[in-house]
Amino acid sequence: MNSLGLNLILRLGCICAKETITVNSRKYRVREHLGEGGFSTVLLVEDVVTHKKYAIKKIVCYGSEDQQLAMREIEYYKLIKHPNVIECIDSTRIGTADPILNTTSEVFIVLPYYHKGTVANELERRARNCDYMNPIDILSIFLQICEGVKAFHEIKPEPLAHRDLKTANIVLNDDGTPIIMDLGSMATARVQVCGTQAARVLQDLAAERCSMPYRAPELFNVESYSMVDERTDIWSLGCILYALCYFKSPFDTVYERGDSVALAVMSAHVTFPENTPYNEDMQDLILSMLKVNPMERPYIYSVIESVHDTIAKLEGRV
């Protein structure tokens, strides 16, 4: 057999050997890897029957705690039904995680695929051309993100906090509607911290699961006797609104330089670029959420009200 024929067979073999994933009797062919985090991999897949594209989040669990966290994430998807929060289409667990037996389990979560990508992708594209968005368009997008966050915060009997809100965790659907994704860091919002050990546990968990440029100050330095609540998300929303205006979180540059994000966040020294199409009303709205003391931060209902007021002011000036 000549080398051309052998290469053809090898290529065909690679195509035929394309990985497939079965979730509750539905089979999906893996098209490509979309992203990878410390705890999971996100794959672009195609239903082998309908050829419709989906995203599958694959979580490898090494112990019972990992497994419980993954299954809890699935419960959160089922619990929160909102147009600005991603839906779970299907899910399954394969195997049992047992470190003593040296076995792992895999949890697969089937999610919609949004080909437009994330808000972070859109802002990177705009940053290259200094293409600032219209202030009213920004506030319209931000308002929808806030409505999604409100769905977490008003869950009964106890509110939930997303804990990793950032532009990379918000996708855009075909008509540009923002949809919050990745509920893997979600947790009960209100935590009464009693003692240094409890503080250390929460701080370590935040370090693992909450992105630094969007992480609230009280999660960098958890006090031994304190209360942490859903306003951790309000800080992140302030960073998101800043990014919608200026393409990056106010603490992204510190992170990229390798300087201490914790110190920058704790001082909350936020500067605004000059010669941009955003006035003091927008800047005041951002700063109202970026209060170092969480007790001075508004709850989501007040944020939504302030966004409506700012939109009304801007429309009044048009």
Descriptive overview:
By secondary structure, this protein is α+β, with helices and mostly antiparallel strands. Residues 8-16 have low confidence and may be disordered. It has eleven helices and twelve strands. The chain is globular and about 60 Å long. The chain folds into two domains: 20-112, Phosphorylase Kinase, domain 1, CATH 3.30.200.20; 119-317, Transferase(Phosphotransferase), domain 1 (Orthogonal Bundle), CATH 1.10.510. Strands 1-2-3-4-6-5 form a six-stranded antiparallel beta sheet. It has a two-stranded antiparallel ribbon with strand order 7-10. It has a two-stranded antiparallel ribbon with strand order 8-9. Helix 7 packs antiparallel against helix 10 and helix 10 runs antiparallel to helix 11 (300-317).
Short overview:
The protein has 318 residues and is an alpha+beta fold. Helix 4 runs antiparallel to helix 11 and helix 10 (280-289) packs antiparallel against helix 11.
Quick tags:
318 residues, alpha+beta, Phosphorylase Kinase, domain 1, 2 domains, 6-stranded antiparallel sheet, two-stranded antiparallel ribbon, 11 helices
Give the CATH superfamily of the largest domain.
Transferase(Phosphotransferase) domain 1
Q: Could you say what the CATH topology of the largest domain is called? A: Transferase(Phosphotransferase), domain 1
* Strand content bin: 15-25%
Number of domain units: 2
Number of strands: 12
What string, H for helix and E for strand, traces the elements in order? HEEEEHEEHHEEEEEHHEHHHHH
The CATH architecture classification of the largest domain is Orthogonal Bundle
Stretches where pLDDT is under 50 for at least 5 consecutive residues are 8-16
The CATH class of the largest domain is Mainly Alpha
Q: Termini distance? A: 74 Å
Summarize model confidence as the mean pLDDT. Answer: 91
GO molecular function, one term: protein serine/threonine kinase activity
Binding site for ATP: 58
Keywords: ATP-binding, Kinase, Nucleotide-binding, Serine/threonine-protein kinase, Signal, Transferase
Catalytic activity: L-seryl-[protein] + ATP = O-phospho-L-seryl-[protein] + ADP + H(+); L-threonyl-[protein] + ATP = O-phospho-L-threonyl-[protein] + ADP + H(+)
